[in-house]
Amino acid sequence: MKRLFVLTTLFAFYAGGISAQGFLKGGQVHGNFEIDAQYYQPDDKLGITDSSLAGKVYGMNAFGNLIYTNGGFSAGLRYEAYLPPLNGFDARYEGQGIPYWFAGYQGDKFEITVGHFYEQFGNGLVLRSYEEWALGYDNNFNGARIKYQPFDGVYLKALAGTQRFFWEPYEDDNRGIVKGFDAEFYLNDMIPGLREKKTRIVLGGSFVSKYEKAKTKSILVDTTRYVYEFPENVAAMAGRVNLIHGGFNLVGEYAYKMNDPSAMNGFIYKPGEALFTSLSYSQKGFGVTLSAKRIDNMSFKSGILEQSNALDINYLPPLTKQHLYSLPTLYPYATQPNGEMGVQAQLVYTIPRKSKIGGKYGTKIEVNYSKINALEKEAVEPGIPIDSTGTLGYRSNFFSFGELEYYEDLNIKLSRKFNSKFKASVSYFNMKYNIDVIEGHPGEPMVYANIGVLDMTYKLDYTKSLRLELQGLFTEQDRGDWATVLLEYNVAPKWFFSIMDEYNYGNPDDDMQLHYYNAAVAYVLHSTRIALSYGRQREGLLCVGGVCRQVPASNGFTLNITSSF
Amino acid sequence: MKKAALLLLATFVAIIVFSQEEQKHKLPSVEIKNVNGIPFNTSDIDNDGDPVIISFWALWCKPCIRELNTISDVYPDWQDETGVKLYAVSIDDVRSSSKVLPFANGNDWDYEILLDPNKDFARAMNVNLIPHMFILDGEGNIVWQHTSFAEGGELEVIETVRKIAAGEELSQ
Amino acid sequence: MIMKMKKNILLLIVSSFFFLFTACDKLDSPYLVEQGHDIPDPEEVVRKVLLEEFTGHKCPNCPKGSKIAHDLKAIHGEQLVVLTIHAGWYAQTEPGMYSEDFRTTAGTAIYEDFEQPPTPQGLVNRAQYAGKTVLSINQWEPALLEQLEMEPEASITINVDYNSTNREVSVNSETIFLNDVTGEFSVCMFITEDSIVSPQVNNDPDLGPSPDWEDYVHEHVLRKAITGAWGENINPGEDIIPEEPYESKGSVVLDEDWRENHCNIVAFVYRNDTKQVIQAEEVSVIGE
User: Which of B71, B68, B151 minimizes the C-alpha distance to A459?
Assistant: First the structure.
């Protein structure tokens, strides 16, 4: 009812705002929408039967956004509907309503927002709210935010709010309240003497506090009952630096979180820590980035008992490359918030045009290496096992890597345009994937996979092109070997056709040596896109950023419509 | 539930009908960062009266990179002919935002690169899917937009830019 | 001048946010505080709460849930009735170690009615806690405490007659409402079995062997519904009369591999409209 009220008010306000042109001259309304619908059908081989579908033959996720702006004033809302949610999306999304609406004013040196908003402090280690439609992830804040620039080069932000939890309105007991403050200083703009200096220095700091009513939790040790003491206020803070000099760019952020026992960390009381650093150098034709990070007990949620992908206050970026081809995405990495050590190196180089090796158009080389290990943990006291609930949990040396490997990935991509009609790229991936830890399959052995991809594009004429992808994944573990063929025929800028077959020919289970075929057509007119596809979808983990969604196997039709105006 | 849906539909219709009267579609003012991490207000996107292309992309988006690579090959010619300037707005989050500049440089791109790591600008521009491209006329009005990319798609882009540079009205 | 004032006011607002943060609770060891058990006088009618635990023998996190259920049962004694329902993906069987099928028609029906949640999760009196009915394992205790604080609304007495010759169990339950209530109610009667030793996947080495816990002890396992998954409506179209006994009857023949000395009868009464349980009861099949 409340939502309906908001909707009506905003509607009246929009309609009024637009028709009363004389009064609110210069107002603009823009928006977009998307509808994703699926029709599921039984598929014996995938184990999908009429009874397992349980009457759920359709799924639909849809949203519509409207934003009204007039000078410094803006207001907007997003309507969402999950009727019912597509397979693989959290069932708690079922229903529809307005989970996001705001009104705001932006002045010369300040900005005020009330209602819902997205925000990120620094690199997000202590606070980030964002949404990923494809993953069904949204942790927006509902409250108020002020941004203010008191002097040149000084940016302040303060906010207070509660986070989105599916369709559940905030109540006293069901989640915490988050308050945050962030300051960023651009020294070169603040200090006249530094204004002309080549080196630029940026400093920043954040402070975030969560208040949540204490919950009761007991545990029996032998036959004695103990009750956990929970902090009602949990604070986290972070400091960061960014140094820029010529082609060099150094980014670093350190975050610290007070004792925060939670369902996520098994109710241990150790403070959390995170360090995220990255050094890059680049010039025309060449770029390299080296990164390192440590995550130690840094899950930070505005719900002490919450274990699902919801109510995250902070964001812990994974230090691995997000792969673009389908088979390498079979083994995606997700940050382990309870602890990990990681390093990454990435290099991009263009062998110049018209050189001997570079060819007429130049040749591009991309190399990426990532390695993520567990933390090294020691017992807090002799006799208390590591990670014991209701204790500090463990001790850990800040700079040492644990022996347990989570993920390793070396990949190389070469791409070259041979002539005005033909270009191709070839990629190789070597991966090590701890499926036990990352996907929670206890006892399953480490997956070692070699993957090769050949991607060729041939232009038939100015607007018509063919693209062929050949992929192979070779592994002795998990589901064995895969081969993929994808053929696209595109008529730019409007028509897209594709057929694909992913064949799991090496599956150790003979009955699961399946073809996952798919055919798709899409039509694009300016900013409207309509796509229809038919086929099988393999079971897998879909990850964007630090969040993953388990996609179950399915078979059927998919329709996507998206448009902006 | 039906009521809400109907109301929304009515809102959409009303908006679309009423907004026909609006001619100018200006860029929203959003505080994002330039490729070095220095604050940049999107209302400062400007090209001294010449057309501007804004392309939303990310390192994880294959067609986006193909689009920017394809345009990169002809970009010097486009600039000579129409004076156009391309802003490539990366919506990569902090997982890879520090790799954007090395990637763009490594690929020898001559674009203005901007970082929108929490999608504030993308949200204000109603970007759903990337690649999503906007073309602005010399006065900063958004006059054309397009989503998706296939080889040859750049031809429609330069056609549009030429028309704008020549002062022609667009039919979109 | 006005500009300057504006600036100062804003600065004041922004910095006052900062001072809101003085609160942050730094705790010192020991973090666990010893507490007694609170088991009430057996003479008076007390509220007894039903915990339905969704689990599966191939569910790696489920031993964590069962440990919590076990602890809660030990703390709250007869005020908590646990019903373990094996259902969903992780409860499927496979040749070899996990060939035993603990799934039941009634259990699956309940699981599906609550939208097939990921396991382990559970229902505490099928009541809402923090806006949800299906609760994660750490929400069981606060939800249980909330339910236990409410006044008892009904009492259930279960009479069991076990015939060891044909292994038939006849059950007769009497539900007495203590106050005036409106709406329709149903009584469910289930048979459960304790102490079943059978393998369980486990990812918590602190609790037991991991990944396969071969001699895992399964407790409170739902075996069969005596009067269907949703029981019997006891007052169709009528108002409940307080202090009046409402009877519910049924019988079931024990499977040969169910051990009668480990079998229990669980009965509970729930509101038909909200499915919320108001009272539960449990007795052993062969008597104490």
Answer: B151
Q: What is the CATH number of the domain that holds C159?
A: 2.60.40.10
Rounded-to-integer distance, Cα C276 and Cα C288, Å = 29
C200 vs C86: CA distance, rounded Å? 12
* pLDDT (tens digit per residue) in B40-57: 999 889 888 899 999 999
| 3-state SS class at A469 | strand
Low-confidence ranges of chain C (pLDDT < 50): 1
Site of tokens 């840094």:
A298
Task: State residue A154's pLDDT score.
Answer: 92
Residue C152 within any structural domain of the chain: yes
Q: Quick check: is C34 in a domain?
A: no
Q: Which domain holds residue C90?
A: 45-284
Over chain A (565 residues), what is each successive 10-residue block's mean pLDDT?
49 46 65 92 83 80 92 92 89 91 92 95 94 90 94 92 92 88 93 88 94 88 87 94 93 94 92 94 92 95 89 92 89 91 94 81 92 93 88 91 94 92 94 90 89 94 92 94 93 89 92 91 89 87 60 86 89
- Strand segments, DSSP code E, in B25-131 are 31-34, 39-41, 52-57, 85-90, 112-115
Domains of chain B: 24-165 (3.40.30.10)
**A-contacting residues in B 152-171 (Cβ below 8 Å):** 152-153, 155-156
Whether A283 contacts chain B with CB within 8 A: yes
Identify the pLDDT of residue A22: 40
For chain C, positions 29-48, list CB contacts with chain A under 8 A.
29-37
Does residue C19 sit at the A interface (CB-CB below 8 Å)?
Answer: no
Q: How many domains does chain A have?
A: 1
Rounded-to-integer distance, Cα A500 and Cα A469, Å: 9
Residue A176 falls inside a structural domain:
yes
Any residues with CB less than 8 A from the CB of A307 and at least 6 apart, and which?
A263, A264, C136, C138
Domain-located, residue C25: no
Global ipTM: 0.88
| pLDDT for residue C1 | 46
* Cα dihedral B105, B107, B108, B114 sign: negative
Residue A205, domain member (yes or no): yes
Does residue A61 fall inside a structural domain?
A: no
Domain that holds residue A269: 107-315
Q: How far apart are CA A441 and CA A379, in angstroms?
A: 26
CB atoms within 10 A of CB A262: 21
Instruction: Examine chains A and C and say if they touch (3+ CB pairs below 8 A).
Output: yes
Q: How many domains are there within chain C?
A: 1
- This prediction has a pTM of 0.86
CB A347 within 8 A of CB A366: yes
Pick B36's closest partner by Cβ from A4, A74, A249: A249
Which phi and psi angles does B3 have, rounded to 5°?
-55, -50
Backbone phi, psi, residue C154, to 5°: -155, 165
Task: Please tell me if residue A440 touches chain C, with a CB cutoff of 8 Å.
Answer: yes
Task: Tell whether C2 is covered by a domain.
Answer: no
Q: Which tokens sit at B54?
A: 């804004």
C-alpha–C-alpha distance, residues C24 and C26, integer Å: 6
pLDDT beyond 50 at B1: no
